[in-house]
Description:
By secondary structure, this protein is mainly alpha-helical. The chain contains 28 helices and 4 strands.
Amino acid sequence: MGERRKRESDDGERSLIKAPSSASLSSAGPSAASPAPADLERAARKQFQQDVTPGFVYVLAVFSAIGGFLFGYDTGVVSGAMLLLKRDMNITALWQELLVSGTVAAAAVSALLGGYLNGLFGRRVCILTASFTFAIGGIVLGSAPNKEALLVGRLIVGLGLGIASMTVPVYIAETSPPHLRGRLVTINTLFITAGQLIASLIDGAFSYMQHEGWRYMLSLSVVPALLQFLGFLFLPESPRWLIQKGLTQKARRILSQIRGNQNIDEEYDTIKSSIEEEEKDCGGGGPVIWRMLTYPPARRALIVGCGLQMFQQLSGINTVMYYSATILQMSGVQDDKLAIWLVTVTAFTNFLFTLLGVWLVERVGRRRLTLGSIFGTVLSLCILSVGFLLSAQHSPPVTLHLTDPTTPNSSCTTHLSCEPCMLDPSCGYCYQENSTAVFDSSCVPVNPASTERAAWGKCSNSTHLPDSGIWAYNFCPTSYSWVVLLGLVLYLACFAPGMGPMPWTVNSEIYPLWARSTGNACSAGVNWTFNVLVSLTFLHMAQYLTYYGVFFLYSSLALTGFFFIYGCLPETKGRRLEEIESLFENRLCSLRRWHMLFCVSCAAPMCYKDEQSFYGFGTTWGVNE
Ligand SMILES: O[C@H]1[C@H](O)[C@@H](O)[C@H](O)[C@@H](O)[C@H]1O
C-alpha cells in the first residue's frame, strides 16, 4: 500500500487520483480549517465527471438491474400463486412451505457457488447464465403438470436468483464512475422492490382467474429474463475482471466504450496498479476464502458485509412483506380479495421509499443513511410490537364454547379468547359483529383443505350467507389496528431507503478485486440463509412468543444491528473501488468509537472535540485507533 501511494505522489498526473494518506484521513473533518488538497482534487474530478457521464453507464445499470427485478418478482409472486395452487392442485401445507422456501434455500446455495463462477467466467457470463436459468425456470413452472414439477421449477428459479443477486451489484459497481456508483447499485434494489410490486399487481389481477391463473403468475417472469439475456449478448464484460485476467487490451477498449469521450488512462492505470499491488499484498496461496480470512483488511470487510446482510434480514423485512395481508386484515379488512390488493399498497410503499434511498445515497452517504434507517426501523418495530400487545390485551373473548363430535379433542375448545385461538395454527376465530362489539364468537378448527374457512359451524361455508359468521384465521378483530398500521407504514418508510438497499450497495464496493466475487457470494449467501430462517420461524415463534414478542425480538435484533453498524461501517461514498480497501486497514469496532457514542448521547461537554470528529466520521474512519 505504502509503496503505491509513494509512486502516485511522485507522478504529477497521478496526484489527481491519489488515495488519501493516513494523515489526510485523520485530519480532515468539519473541524478542519481548510480542505486538504486531495479533497479539492476529488471535488474537481467529481465536477468534471458529473458533466460528462455517458448514457451507456445507465444502459448497463438498467439491463443488469433486470436481475434485481426478477429477484423481487420471483420471491414476491409466490404468495398469491399459492392461494390458487392450493385449490387447483390440492397441495398440503408441507408442499406449500417447500415451494416457497425451496427457492430461497436454492438461492442461498447458488449465491455461494456464484462466487466461484464469477471469478472463473466473469460477471457477464454469470448474468447470462442467471437470466437463462430464470427463463427455463419460468417455462417449467408455467407448464408444470404436478407439484413435483413445480418444485423443480422453483428450485431452478432459486439457482438463478442466487447467482443474479450476488453478480448484478458487483457488475454495476465495477462499471460505474465513483460519484454515481452508490446510486446505480441502489437502482438494483429499487428494481427488486419494483419486481415485488409488479408481482403483487399480477397476483391481484390473476386472482380472479380461479383455474390455472397461477400458471400465468409464475411464468410471466420469462419475458424480463429473455430481455436481459438478449441485452447481455451485446453488453460488455466488466473491465476490472478483464484486467485481472490479463486481458488488458480488451479491458481498455471496453472501459473507453463505457466512459464515452472521457480520458480513461488514469482510471485504467489505477485499476491495473491496484491489482498488481493486491496480488503482492494478499500474498499466500490457497482458496480465496482462506486468503480472505487470513488477510485482516479482507476479513474485516467480510465481517462488515455479512453482518449488514444478516441484520437486514433479522430486522424482519420479509416477515412484514409476507404477512402484511394478515396485518392489514387485523386492521379490519375482511375481504380476501381486498387484502390481496392492499398488499400492493405495502409493496408500493416499499418501492417508493427505496426510490428515496436512490436519491439520498450520494447525498448523505452510505453510513448515515444506514444508521438513520436502522434506528427508525428499531422504533417502528417497537410501535408494531405495542400495537400487537394492545390488540392482545383487548382480545375479544370466546362466548360460545361449541364442540363438534367429530373433533372432540381439538385444542381449539380450550382457548378462552381470540389471541390464543389465532396463535394456534389448527384453529380460527368465528364471530359476528355489530357497529360496537363482537358477539357469538367461537374458536373452531380450521378446514384441513383450506384455511379460508372453518371445519364446521357458521364459518364453514365459503359462500357468505347473511347469518354466517366472520372467519378470522391468523388475525383477531381489534380496535388498536391503527397502531399496527402506523407501525407498518413507518417500518417501510424507515427500512426501505437504507437497510433495504445499503447492504447490497456496500457489499459491492468494500472488497478488493481479488476477493470481490467471493465476498459478495458469502454475504449474499448469508442474506438468503437468514431470509429463509426468519420467514420459516415466524409462525412458530409467534406461537411461543406471541406477535408482539416476535416484533419486539426483531426490534432488539435491529438495535444490535445499529450498534454493529455504528461501530464497524465506514463511509465509502465517492471513493474509487481501489481506495476502499485502505478503510479496512485498522481494527474494527474500537473502544474509542463507543466512547464517542457515549459522549454524543450524554452531550458531555468535555467530549465536544471528539464529537466533532465523530460527525466527520466519513473521513476519519479507521485511522489512529
Ligand atoms: O434488499 C431487499 C429488499 O429490501 C426486499 O424488499 C427484500 O424482500 C429483500 O429480502 C432484500 O434483500
